[in-house]
Every structure is written in C-alpha cells, then in structure tokens.
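so the lab meeting is tmrw and i was supposed to have these ready like two days ago... anyway. pasting both below. for each one the top line is the aa sequence and the line under it is the structure tokens. i havent really looked at them closely yet so no promises
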Amino acid sequence: MAVARQVITALNRNGTDLLGMKNLAVKIADESIVSGSLLTVESNHFCVLKSRGAVLNVYDTGQYALVTPDKPIIGAFVQGFFSGASPWQYEVIYVNRAKLLVSSQGIATTREMAEVSYQVDYYVHVDSKEDALELTTHLPFSGTVIDTDEIAAYAGPAIEQAINAVVQATPLERINEHIAQLLETVKGHLSDFLRVYGITLNDLKVLVLPKDERMRELISLQALGLSAQDAIRYYLALKMADQGLLSAPNAAVGAPFAMGGAVLGTFPLQLGAGTAQQANPPDTPAPNSPWGTPSSDREG
C-alpha cells in the first residue's frame, strides 16, 4: 500500500528548490494527492492545482489543506480502499515568480545583405496568480518542466522579426547609431508577445555584430577615422605583420619594398592623394630610365 502523501512542496529533501534559476514551472503528478494533503507554497512561487485537465485553484504563498472533489471520502480511506491509488488524478504545478534570465541568438541581414549576428538577453517573471494561470493555460509542457530554453524558443521568431525591421533598412556601418531604436523595437514586440503567456518582460540587452570576422575588423579600423581604402590597406598590413613579413609597414603606407637598393615589389595603393595609382609595368622603362625611351620613340 502506498504511503499517503501528507505534504506537497517544491523543495527537495536537501532543501534545494525544484525550480531553481532555469525552470519557470514544474509539474508534480502524484496519485497520493487527496483531500487533506498539505500544500506548501514558498514565497517565490505560485501554485496551480489541476484535476483531469481542469484548474481547481491557484494558490499564493502559504500552506493550504487541499479540498478536492473527493472531499466526501476521507483521504486515508481512499488510499486503503483503492490499494494506494486514488481514483482521481491531480496535478500540482509550481510557477516561479522570481526573475529569470533568458538568451536568444540569431542572424539578420543589413541593407546591403551583409549578415550580422545578434544576441538578446532579457529578464522575465510571472507577476500574479492570474499570470500563473495564463502560463499554465497557454504554454504547454513537453515534459514535467518549462525552462528558459523553451521560452527562448517561443520568443525567437518575435525577436527576429523586430530586429530585421530595423537592421534590414540600415547600412552595416551605421547599425550602432540605431541601437536605441533597435532596443525599443525589440522590447515592444517581445513584451506584447510574452504577455499572452502571462510573462512580464523586465530588463533587455541587445548586441549586434558583423557575422564575418574580417568585416568586423575593417569596421573597427574605419571607426578610428580611416577611409574605406585606408582601412583595407592597414588591414592587409596587420595580416602581413601577423605572418612576420618585413614588407608589412610598406603595405600600410603603400610604398615599394627595397632591399640592398633593389626594389623587390611595389604596392599599387600609394599614400597621399587617397586614390589608387597604378605602378609602372615591369617591361616599360620609366621616363628617366638609363635604358632610354621605348623603341617606338627612337629615330630610325
């Protein structure tokens, strides 16, 4: 014969919380839950009592003696008469009312169709007994818990839509100028979406970065005040320096690299006017070359 369950709680035997910092709701289904069982609700929890899919009551903080439809039959008699199995199945759902951290990631495209990655971190909580009921009504259980990963999966499309509404109309190098608008747009869309599930949105943080590491470095160089052409040249010089090439400073200033008086190579991008200057082809003598003028200009 099963032992009648006298106390129902969301705490483990060692005092730890079943909900913790990741779970928004935990479902306890036990055949020993009958009228007279004591239901304990901690200060950071709500509790929803259900029977065969119907909500019987929603509890705030405190301890309560359950009153269920089997009230006319004493709980202990029910346990003995039915060999430890109650003829009614009850579910106790504990809802976390503390603030929980949720994170969502994804990819968006800018006006030039350049890919950027975004990360949205936000805090949520369930504010009232009515919201706890909305949560258990509209958000299904895939098992015995609803955790923050499931919240992120549900809210992901709403966040992506809000971010694309701003990012797709903004050039890549100007996204940070619109970060305040992006933050407000995401907050409005996400808050409206979560409200349907009885979830209140608190603080929100949005981070948007170019997905390509090369593009991220080029934009960082332009942020120093360099033109797009100079940023490319300095990026090339930095990569050459990482490889230990002696010609890296020459690439930065667009100057030829000489060793022992012999020019070993030239860079077509010349420092000065800010425009590309084509170096003389190797088979065409320069105007002051000791080899004279091209053969087409010689007499006879």
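ok protien two:
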Amino acid sequence: MTAAQAMASAAARLRAAGVSDPARDARVLLAHAARIEASRVTLIAPEELDLDIAERYDQLISLRAIRVPVSHLIGEREFYGRRFKVSGDVLDPRPETECLIEAALAQPFDRVLDLGLGSGCILVTLLAEQPLATGVGVDLSEAACLQASANAVLHRVEERAEILQSDWFASVDGQFDLIVSNPPYIALDEMPTLSDEVRRHEPEMALTDGGDGLGAYRVLAAGLAQHLTTEGRVLLEIGPTQAQAVQALLADAGLEQIQVIRDLDGRDRVVSARKSEKTGGDR
C-alpha cells in the first residue's frame, strides 16, 4: 500500500468514526508515524509504506478513531507560533487563548503571575515574547507543573520562570504588574455536552470547578488586590456566557477599568481589569 492509499483509507476510517476533520488528522498522523514534517507527506505519497511505519500508522488511526486527541498522539500542540509538549495531564492549548496573549502583550509588563498554568503555554509564551520579564506559574497538579517546567526549558525561559505547586494564591508571595489565568470555567451540568476528546481525555480539574463554573473566579477575585501592584492588570479567560458575572466579581473586589475582549469568532473571551491606588490589598 502506498502512503497515499494508506492516508485515504485512514481518512475513511476516521470519517466513519465521526472525527470532525478526518483528512487533516490522517495526514498529521501519517507524518508522525513516518517521523517527517507534515509538509513532506505529499513527497512520500507515491511510495510504498515500510511495514513498521504502516503498523505505527494503523495504531495511531485506531486510537484517533476512539477520540484520543491528535495532540496526545503526537505529544504536542502549536500555540502562538510555538510547539508545546502536552499530555493527558494538562489542558490542550487552544487558539482562542491567543486572544489573552495579544491583550497581555498590548502593554508592557515586568513580572507576571499565571494561575493554573497547565502546560505553561500562557506563561512561557509571555516570557518568550518579553525577554526582560520574569514570572511565576502555579498549578494544583504536580504533573502539570512538571509539564510546564519542560515547556519552559524547551523554549529557553526556565531561568525567568518559577513554577510552583499551589492551590491558587496559597503559595504565592509578592506582587505582580500582570496576572493571567485560564481557570476551569465549565459548569458541571455542561460537562456531558463536551466532545469525547475533551470530556474523556483532558483533566477534569482543568475543565470544571464541579459547580456553576464561577468558583475559580470567586477565589481569584478575592486575592487579586493583594497580589497586584498599583496599576497592575489582570486578564482572565472566560466562557462565552460568563462576562457579566466575572465583571461583577472584579468590580466587587475594587478593580477598575473592567473590559470584555472578544475572540476572533466574536465571542466574549477575556475580562480585563486594573488595580487603582484606592483599591485595597497593598502590602
């Protein structure tokens, strides 16, 4: 069987299994099985597949057909132009989170705190884009901290990134001129509506608070004033229906200049706010 024939057969299997973009996944997984860049798949299309490649490819397609995410099969996901190592221990970096990155980079910062850092894609990206900045990232999951540490090394920001296992602010000291977070915001009753790839293969603690989806924001709002410098900013990723509730929590915490930023699909995606001189919590 040639590579082209194998890819066509794989795409048909994935389509029958209900995978949303079978042709793309078949191509990416063939490249991974053959240990080449996806852009080179067309070059090997007329060639017969070696037996070992064919066997690896068949196994990958079988796993994808039962909805194991492509990122978990190849071990990485692209985010803001960089490749991040991922696994079932962390939330997959998502394109919509790049909206938070753009907002963060729109103004200068020296010291950033990432709460619930997961793979580290937000913290590592911000430090890579701002080579003079330093940052702290925290996650309750030890496995996530290890994954984020590996990505910090991969992108050569490890000397400027301190990664701590912490329950939100519990182990965090000092103040920051930028605080960012993509917390678990899916309500428990919304979990059954998620795709199999997400619901079955991503860590539940990174997806939902087990309640109404606002639990993390309540905790974050309560600690922001203490950990933000005067005029410091906070950027929180949200679910598309949560803007009003999160804005209210930040207003109650005394933050000002509260705004909602929409993603490229026009959905509410990030709430931003700033600490003023009259906001409490200074140390």
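from a quick look at the 2nd one: The first strand starts at residue 76 and ends at 79. The chain has two domains: 3-66, 91-274. will dig more after coffe
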